[in-house]
Amino acid sequence: MFELKKKSIFKGIRIKLGGFSLLWFMFALLFMALSPQTSFSTRIKEIAYIDGIRNNQLIGYGIVIGLNGTGDKANTVFTNQSLANMLEKMGIKVDPNATKVKNVAAVMVTANLPPFSKVGSTIDVTVSSIGDATSLTGGVLLMTPLRGADGEVYAVAQGALIVGGFSVGGAGATVQKNHTTVARIPNGATIEREIGYEFVKRDSIIISLKTHDFTTARRIEERINSLYNDISHAKDAGTIYVKIPDNMKENPVKFLSLIENLDVKPDSVAKIVVDEKTGTIVIGENVRISTVAISQGNISVMVKEDFKVSQPLPFAPPGAQTVVTPDTRIRAEEDKGKLFIVEGDLTIKELVNALNAIGVSTREMISILQTIKAAGALHAELEII
């Protein structure tokens, strides 16, 4: 029986330091003792945004040319049709069914239009193949209009593609790194139309939390009211109304700059996130576990299979044949599980130390957390992605 107690983490640890090292050790302890109140605070602009200020998604259909035989194949109908339509606009009429080229690929072009973008400024674009092209390396995107959700053209993209990978191969093998059918063009689109943003409504602004939480909303309200008397009001867990003071109405940008840089300590729900595909576990700060006893045992099964060949003896009767018979051996072993006691109301550091002391792998730890949750001893939300 092995017992882990909350107050015995550092028991038995001996520290032997020289004079200079001891000085630095005491300084580190003093620094940690003086800084916990501000170490977890963050600015309002990191946890919230001003209502009315947002990105807008743009999308367009385009053609990439200049590929070294890695473009869409002849059976990709829309690529041949698009190429024929483009050439027809330039005064060259061709039959789409007779067009057979391997250096052209049809792509979808996407981009995000940041708020307050002006005509003439540039944005990055992402180019993705929609046909059966094998690589976009070395390609050039032709002029592609980018439209918003309302169907209007807000930007035009064109330029050489940058592919973050490669693909080489021969008749018998192929080597590929990353995706070669997705590329980017830095500053590849020029903005042609602006979007107006109305973030000041009736001498007030609305702050929206990225993660809704009543405690965080209340703390933001109190933080703003500590500087400006009774101008902030939290409507719900994700919305805070802020009235612009009379002396700031002529300069709302300065007021927003002061508000978004205020420090607030955000609150969070106790949560454990588990990614079973990669074996990743992320444990939140407020996770607590009641006193439980844990026993973890593994069962390993080994199957070994050989094949024995039995041939006919000399002077065997006619019709005797060689026979292959399988020889299968199975062995099962079960580890002797030990019972561990994990005492309740642990901090995140004590919880991690307790789970590590059991000596299980990450995937076994996932099963333990699920079992503790099923037993009702895990006081947190367990999310599996």
Structure description:
By secondary structure, this protein is an alpha+beta fold. The chain has 3 domains: 43-52 and 198-264, Gyrase A, domain 2, CATH 3.30.1360; 56-191, no CATH class; 271-298 and 336-384, no CATH class. Helices cover 22% and strands 35% of the residues. The protein is built from 8 helices and 24 strands. The strands form 8 sheets. It has a 6-stranded antiparallel barrel. Strands 3-12-14-13 form a 4-stranded antiparallel β-sheet. A 3-stranded mixed β-sheet has the order 1-22-19, with helices on one face. Strand 5 and strand 6 form a beta hairpin. The longest helix is centred in the N-terminal third of the chain and has 16 residues, at 19-34. The chain is flat, with a radius of gyration of 33 Å. It starts with a strand and ends with a strand. The model is unreliable at 1-39 (pLDDT under 50).
Task: Compute the number of strand runs.
Answer: 24
Separation of the first and last Cα atoms: 34 Å
Tell me the count of domains: 3
How is the largest sheet built, in terms of strand order? 4-5-6-11-8-7
Shape: flat
Structural class: alpha+beta
Biggest sheet details: 6 strands, antiparallel, barrel
What portion of residues belong to β-strands? 25-35%
Radius of gyration: 33 Å
Q: Total helix count? A: 8
Residue stretches low in confidence (pLDDT < 50, at least 5 long) are 1-39
Give the fraction of residues assigned to helices. Answer: 10-25%
The average pLDDT score comes to 80
